[in-house]
Amino acid sequence: MSIRLGDTAPDFTSESTEGTIQFHKWLGDSWGILFSHPADYTPVCTTELGTVAKLKDEFESRNVKVAGLSVDSIEDHKGWISDINETQNTEMNFPLIADPNRKVANLYDMIHPNALDNLTVRSVFVIGPDKKVKLTLTYPASTGRNFDELLRVIDSLQLTAQHSVATPANWKDGDDCIVVPALSDEEANEKFPKGFTSVKPYLRITPQPNK
Ligand code: BEZ
Cα of 46 to ligand 1 centre, how many Å? Predict the structure, then answer.
């Protein structure tokens, strides 16, 4: 069954390149990203994993733990990691889950047989500290994902969780934000000392609260 926003992220126990992972326990109070790639020793995946490794500090500063997954074995993962380190000029620093029996792939509906026979597509799940799914993405095998966009979405999700603001189209860190409709004008006045502008009663703009 497909996973929808607000669902509890399915829990699982699996082997990874950093040992056995009990997913919910491993996440702890962190935010999480679980992302699948179709297969080891493939070109697009090699660049993706190198890119994620280089973003370690960005994920850490946002309290996000990252795990990759494919249906290949631990032995394949370990061999491939040497290639990733060599060709992408980095050191892998997050776990790659081995899912040869497709247990996690099936739990998260990562196999789309009409797109890729028996392999996972490029799925992404962002999971909040409450273990609820906050974002899902599905990309085709031939298109590498934009991990800067994932960081941008996490910034937006964290602003909403902590400051009751939403973010407009093409928002970037530092841009103005939108007061969530659930807040009355009185509540917004209390919450946003920098004030807000009512363009329309339903469209209220405020400077990014944590800047
Ligand atoms: C890749 O990661 O390069 C890839 C994997 C499966 C199909 C096409 C490309």
Answer: 9
pLDDT per position as a tens digit, 163-184:
999 999 999 999 999 999 999 9
Q: pTM of whole model > 0.85? A: yes
Residue 177 is among the residues annotated as catalytic for this protein: no
Residue 107 Cβ inside 6 Å of ligand 1? The answer reads no
| pLDDT tens digits, 5-61 | 999 999 999 999 999 999 999 999 999 999 999 999 999 999 999 999 999 999 999
DSSP type of residue 163: H
Alpha helices in the chain (DSSP H): 23-27, 43-54, 56-61, 74-88, 103-107, 147-163, 185-191
Ligand 1: centre distance to CA 37 (Å) = 8
In order of their start, the domains of the chain are 13-145 (3.40.30.10), 163-206 (3.30.1020.10)
Residue 140 near ligand 1, beta carbon < 6 Å: no
Atom 7, ligand 1: which residue's CA is nearest?
A: 141
CA angle 164, 166, 168 (to 5 degrees): 160
